[in-house]
């Protein structure tokens, strides 16, 4: 019979894995050494919560801690775990691969590491790192995106489908011939008109995404940002975009920006979402069914402080008619 202390040790090990945040934390720290603040940003929890869970895991022997100046960095080193701990962790981590939160953590850690690299440049590079701050102070932080948009053909007509308050139309309008801002909500269109009151090449039209008030082959490009998850029938909406597109002059392009597949079911009730994001296989099927070729789908690297699911940008193109 095992000594009671041995039984307690087993219970302590199981207890360390009994919290969902600690499970995510262990999976995270297998891939990257992180500070307390970085853990908090990736898991989107207060730093005090991150510290508390790190303390539990460290005291349980699950983590290796490294001190660098005033900062502490933590890592899971499998070879440093006991045989019993590895035997307990292996089947648990094997069941975590397809969990949506784990995928979202993995996307956020990329942003955290990228920010760390920038911080390192700022700290060690002096002039190189200080240039970003100086450039932002002198010229603001939006000019790069606005400059890149000027690569759009000046002759194009672009439909901003589900335009909302007009943030996309505001960016695109200075770079193209015409923007047609479409939304089924009259208050949204009014807000967009107020926002773009000075733009002479923006036309505001009320209508639903599933039955666009656009003529056949009348626009060169369609932009649909954070709208498709609200639509009952996304294929029908994409088919409408395809109908409205013309494919000469280099056009026939549909850009859809939306959420990656996720498990935040509360969004159905709190924000009226019809779909919990879209996976790449589903997007490929939807675009093809609507008359496009396979879309080019790219995950958008999010900001570490962003609290929503990860986003993608999917570009579908029509064959030239």
Short note summarizing the structure:
This protein has 13 helices and 10 strands. The chain is an alpha/beta fold. Helix 3 crosses helix 4 (47-59), helix 3 packs across helix 6 (100-125) and helix 6 (100-125) packs across helix 7.
Describe the fold and architecture.
It is a single chain. The protein is α/β, with parallel strands linked by helices and 321 residues long. The chain has two domains: 4-98, Winged helix-like DNA-binding domain superfamily/Winged helix DNA-binding domain (Arc Repressor Mutant, subunit A), CATH 1.10.10; 143-317, 3-Layer(aba) Sandwich (Rossmann fold). It contains 13 helices and ten strands. Strands 6-5-4-7-8-10-9 form a seven-stranded mixed β-sheet, with helices on both faces. The protein has a three-stranded antiparallel β-sheet with strand order 1-3-2. Helix 3 crosses helix 4 (47-59) and helix 3 crosses helix 6 (100-125). It is elongated and about 75 Å long. The termini are far apart.
Structural topology:
Blueprint: H1 4-16, H2 20-31, E1 34-35, H3 36-43, H4 47-59, E2 64-68, E3 71-75, H5 83-94, H6 100-125, H7 127-139, H8 143-149, E4 157-161, H9 167-172, E5 178-183, H10 186-195, E6 202-206, E7 221-225, H11 234-244, E8 253-259, H12 266-270, H13 280-289, E9 296-300, E10 311-317
Parallel strand pairs: 4-5, 4-7, 5-6, 7-8
Antiparallel strand pairs: 1-3, 2-3, 8-10, 9-10
Helix pairs in contact: 3-4, 3-6, 6-7
């Amino acid at each position: 019979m095992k000594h009671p202390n041995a039984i307690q040790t087993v219970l302590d090990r199981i207890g360390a894995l009994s919290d969902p945040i600690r499970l995510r934390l262990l999976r995270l720290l297998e891939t990257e050494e992180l500070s307390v603040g970085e853990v908090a940003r990736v898991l989107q929890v207060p730093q005090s919560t991150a510290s508390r869970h790190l303390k539990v895991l460290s005291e349980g022997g699950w983590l290796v801690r490294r001190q660098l100046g005033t900062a502490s960095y933590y890592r899971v080193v499998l070879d440093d775990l006991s045989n019993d701990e590895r035997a307990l962790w292996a089947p648990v981590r094997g069941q975590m691969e397809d969990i949506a939160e784990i995928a979202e953590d993995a996307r956020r850690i990329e942003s955290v590491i990228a920010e760390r690299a920038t911080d390192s440049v700022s700290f060690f590079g002096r002039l190189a790192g200080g240039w970003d701050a100086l450039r932002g102070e002198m010229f603001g932080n939006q000019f790069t995106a606005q400059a890149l948009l000027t690569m759009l053909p000046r002759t194009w007509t672009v439909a901003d489908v589900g335009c909302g308050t007009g943030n996309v139309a505001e960016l695109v309008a200075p770079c193209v011939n015409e923007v047609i801002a479409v939304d089924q909500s009259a208050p949204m269109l009014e807000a967009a008109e107020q926002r773009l009151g000075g733009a002479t090449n923006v036309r505001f039209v009320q209508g639903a995404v599933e039955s666009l008030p656009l003529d056949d082959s009348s626009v060169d490009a369609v932009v649909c940002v954070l709208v498709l998850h609200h639509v009952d029938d996304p294929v029908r909406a994409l088919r409408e975009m395809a109908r409205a597109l013309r494919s000469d002059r280099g056009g026939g392009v549909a850009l859809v920006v939306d959420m990656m597949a996720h498990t935040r079911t509360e969004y159905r009730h709190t924000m009226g979402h019809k779909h919990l994001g879209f996976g790449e296989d589903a997007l490929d099927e939807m675009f093809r069914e609507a008359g496009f070729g396979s879309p080019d789908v790219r995950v958008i690297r999010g900001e570490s402080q962003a609290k929503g699911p990860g986003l993608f940008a999917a570009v579908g193109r029509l064959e030239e008619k």
